[in-house]
Every structure is written in structure tokens, then in C-alpha cells.
Design goal:
The protein contains 1 helix and 8 strands. The protein has 146 residues and is α+β, with helices and mostly antiparallel strands. The strands form 2 sheets. It has a 4-stranded antiparallel beta sheet with strand order 1-2-3-6, with no helix packed on it. The longest helix is centred in the first third of the chain and has 23 residues. The N terminus is likely disordered. Keywords: Signal.
Length: 146
């Protein structure tokens, strides 16, 4: 009777390990969203033809009381659903500077990225590259201090 219980426990443990691996090894698109309250949004427009001046995405900034978190989404833009190189970097004005970056090839969004920023200012940088050309690069000033 003990043997079947051990087999079941081993199977459950293996399933948990596989599940954890699948959960944590996914792309940013599978990673979910930021916790906390949405505190700001920044519309990003294209820098170069054919997207110059055109909305291409949005950076969303969140705060949970300890951490700031950011996601760069292409929702509503002409590149939504297309695989492009994207990056989002979030920095906290600390010494030394704290930062988190996500870059890769994504169809929908990059991030989330998260930094501990209680009592500090934060800023972000984001980019989209498509067909070996920088479509958009944008950044914020140091903001949301506190």
C-alpha cells in the first residue's frame, strides 16, 4: 500500500516541476500583467516611415506601494499581432541605479518589468524594431517620485 502512495506523490511532484517550468519559462506575452494600480499611460508614436507620427503602442506604468511595473503593448497599433523586436526598460533613480529590462521578439507586448522604487523616481525606455528598422523609440523623464 505504501508503494502506490509514493508513486502518486512522485507523479504529483514531477507534474508540479513541469508546471513550474512551463509557467516561468514562457515569453513576456505569457507572463501576465503588472500588479497594483495603473498610474500612467504613455502613447508611443512611430519615428520612421511608414509609421512616422502614427500610434504604434502604449507603455503602461503601475505602482503597488513598493514596486513600479511597466508593460509596452502594441494593442490598437498597426503592428499588433506581428512579430517585432521590442524592448521595455524600467529604471529607479537609486544609487546604484536599479533597472529591469525585457527585450525579444513579441507579437503583442514586452514586459512586465519591475523595480523597487519606494521613495524614488522612475523612468522607462521602449522600442519597436520591424524589418531591421527602428519603428519607434521613446522614453520618459524621471517621474512618479515617491
Amino acid at each position: 500500500m505504501i508503494r502506490p502512495k509514493r508513486i502518486i506523490q512522485a507523479s504529483l511532484t514531477a507534474a508540479a516541476v513541469v508546471g513550474a517550468t512551463l509557467t516561468f519559462s514562457g515569453t513576456a506575452e505569457a507572463a501576465g500583467s503588472c500588479s497594483g494600480s495603473l498610474i500612467d499611460t504613455y502613447n508611443v508614436t512611430g519615428d520612421n516611415s511608414p509609421y512616422a507620427g502614427q500610434y504604434v503602442g502604449q507603455v503602461r506604468l503601475y505602482w503597488d506601494g513598493t514596486y513600479n511595473c511597466a508593460i509596452f503593448t502594441k494593442s490598437g497599433g498597426p503592428l499588433y499581432g506581428l512579430n517585432t523586436s521590442m524592448s521595455i526598460k524600467l529604471m529607479a533613480g537609486t544609487s546604484p541605479e536599479r533597472s529591469d529590462i525585457d527585450n525579444g521578439t513579441y507579437a503583442y507586448y514586452a514586459g512586465p518589468v519591475k523595480v523597487a522604487a519606494a521613495g524614488k523616481c522612475v523612468r522607462w525606455e521602449g522600442s519597436i524594431i520591424y524589418n531591421d528598422r527602428t519603428v519607434a523609440y521613446d522614453s520618459s523623464s524621471w517621474d512618479h517620485c515617491g
